Amino acid sequence: xxxxxxxxxxxxxxxxxxxxxxxxxxxxxxxxxxxxxxxxxxxxxxxxxxxxxxxxxxxxxxxxxxxxxxxxxxxxxxxxxxxxxxxxxxxxxxxxxxxxxxxxxxxxxxxxxxxxxxxxxxxxxxxxxxxxxxxxxxxxxxxxxxxxxxxxxxxxxxxxxxxxxxxxxxxxxxxxxxxxxxxxxxxxxxxxxxxxxxxxxxxxxxxxxxxxxxxxxxxxxxxxxxxxxxxxxxxxxxxxxxxxxxxxxxxxxxxxxxxxxxxxxxxxxxxxxxxxxxxxxxxxxxxxxxxxxxxxxxxxxxxxxxxxxxxxxxxxxxxxxxxxxxxxxxxxxxxxxxxxxxxxxxxxxx
Length: 350
Ligand code: TXA
Ligand code: MG
Prior knowledge:
The protein is of the alpha/beta class. 33% of the residues lie in helices and 17% in strands. It has helices at 9-20, 42-52, 67-72, 78-87, 123-132, 152-159, 198-205, 270-291, 306-318, 324-334, 339-342, and strands spanning 3-5, 25-28, 33-38, 61-63, 92-97, 114-118, 136-137, 165-167, 179-182, 189-192, 209-210, 234-236, 246-250, 260-263, 295-298. The strands form 2 sheets. It has an 11-stranded mixed β-sheet with strand order 1-8-2-3-7-4-6-5-9-10-11, sandwiched between helices. A 4-stranded parallel β-sheet has the order 12-15-13-14. Bound molecules: threonylcarbamoyladenylate (TXA) and magnesium ion. Threonylcarbamoyladenylate binds next to strand 5, strand 6 and strand 10.
């Protein structure tokens, strides 16, 4: 039975106690809900992978209450400190080399010698991290390969009965996941566009490279696998017209003729669109099943600022589902993942 806890002193104390006991607690951040475990506890971190059915080679972000604690577990450098000062607390994750004496479970690094660290801004997340007194490893609180949750109800829909508790934290204001930036080497590499724009990052540390997922080499960030963030219904991007047998995810003035429409932002505001993206995909996915619509057509979103993160998630949602064989081949290249870790129930993957 999964407890639904209120974001008051009693609920936060209970959530922190459950985390310290090695149990899993989902909580809200300003980006999306995270599925938290005591990051120093191997068993607890391993339980995250089981609950999400997440491949064990896909590493987790470790959340901290403050910058000093976050950068003490990694080999920080000048760029990392400048970014931390500019954007923490906030929706930026930094990937850096683990310190040899780092107390974080190796499972959180998924076999890499780096660790992803972040200081979230959401007041409930911060209160929980302070009360727990331990760093918290937390991927998005969805089943692997599905759309990230932005409400406590979304979390319960996917993980009820599999985790100890969900800490009700209201809506997630940013709505897309954090920006993941590898600053472990002299040239910073963007691994995932997210809540902090590349433009804002480049204002602080200069030019940033963008990682392109190679087809034959090991991926620099396992989460770059295209299959992530997919609804069940097929998604068609850059739609300039829409058919009655399609659901429409609109941006700005909606195209006429759709079976049903969800508007990300009538006034074409990217921040509003990001905050409504995952809710919109979920709602249209559900409606498409009921109304027997064939696809979700998505209107173009400008590829700048937060639009980059939005388009990244939409491209993944639209990417063809990979067959099991592809997963096996890819997994075999850079992990010891087994059948269990590549199962994605409720999602067409083979
Ligand atoms: O906004 C967010 O980032 C949310 C909240 C809960 O913090 N978390 C989140 O976690 O989205 P997750 O696990 O769903 O996505 C983390 C991404 C994955 O693509 C993973 O591969 C990448 O970060 N990542 C984590 N550790 C890494 C590392 N050491 N090196 C490279 N990529 C890493
Ligand atoms: Mg995720």
